[in-house]
Amino acid sequence: MKIHKDHQRFRQIVRGKIREDLRKFLTRGELLGREGKHVISIPVRGIDIPHFRYGDNSDSGVGSGNAQPGDGTDADGEGVGPGGTQEGHHILEVEVTLDELADILGEELELPRIEPKGRKRITSEKDRYSGIRQTGPESLRHFRRTFRRALRRHLMAGTYNPQNPRIIFERRDKLYRSWKTVKEPQSNAVIVYMMDVSGSMGDEQKELVRLEAFWIDAWLRRNYQGIESRYIVHDVRAGEVDRETFFRIREDGGTRISSAFKAAWELLQSHYESLEWNIYLFHFSDGDNSSDADSRECCTLLRDHLLPGINMFGYCQVASAYGSGHFINVLHEHVEDTENMITTRVNTKDDIYDSIKAFFSKGK
């Protein structure tokens, strides 16, 4: 099993390289485009798999001619330009599962695993092969046990010939794997993403939100077996959209943040009972709001309706040249005494690393 050990060692090297450059990977938007159903393709520098290189065995080349050992070499020219002075880099594309990536994220940021709450469970049915029986389809025949039974029968009957070790199966020799359907409970959670799509939120801000949401999603899905994602966008009005629309839509109107909080509250009331679901709310904005009165209404909605029944409300304020950036200060002033509200500022892609750590360092 040496090749298995070599493969495991290679995976450890890959994980180490990813951990070394994790802050860089957190900010690389192209990785999101490489995402498959269960794996993501990552270019890793500095890893080169040993392999054979074959020549063409021609009569010319290095080592051919009439020269003797120790003879000098003749240069026909001075070359095209100066030699390079930089070290070469080997770039290898490796496939990493999203679970592995989330584990690396958790290890590097020292994030505690989340303890789910609530009684609600998604129950899935799976076929588990847990026994042996004497009937079944040939595709489920247990070859090893069948062979052992047939060999035992031949030995007991004295028909086994070591010179011609031919084993003939009879119907009574055959054994088949049996299964039973089991129900497996899965922790149930929902993530509600809310984003300001008014005119002050441009493409640069949307890219920051997209990267932040990807890593939020990766970590929460590693901690819950069953999870749903819902998306709400707002300017002065709010509405639920699908994932693709959430990251692409752009409006040019004003901003009323309370409209998103009301839409989230209605969504939770209709579909997600707080005693039965693990609920995560995340709001992304540049901090601009229509009025101080609306900001105060947002605080009232948070204190009286949203925060009491959820695992966490995360507010991520992204920098914008057109936004006031004032809303985060309102939250600090009026709702700061609650443990399940966390606020972060993301001015550049480099801030995403610290933002993710701030959101999940408490293990909620």
What can you tell me about this protein's structure?
This protein is an alpha/beta fold. It folds into three domains: 70 residues, no CATH class; 59 residues, no CATH class; 174 residues, von Willebrand factor, type A domain (Rossmann fold, 3-Layer(aba) Sandwich), CATH 3.40.50.410. The protein is 35% helix and 23% strand. The chain contains eleven helices and nine strands. Strands 3, 4, 5, 6, 7, 8 and 9 form a seven-stranded mixed beta sheet that branches. Strands 1-2 form a two-stranded antiparallel ribbon. Helix 4 packs across helix 6 and helix 8 packs parallel to helix 9.
Topology-level CATH name of the largest domain: Rossmann fold
Strand content: 15-25%
So, the CATH homologous superfamily of the largest domain?
von Willebrand factor, type A domain
Count of discrete structural domains: 3
Largest sheet entry: 7 strands, mixed
CATH architecture of the largest domain: 3-Layer(aba) Sandwich
Helix content: 25-40%
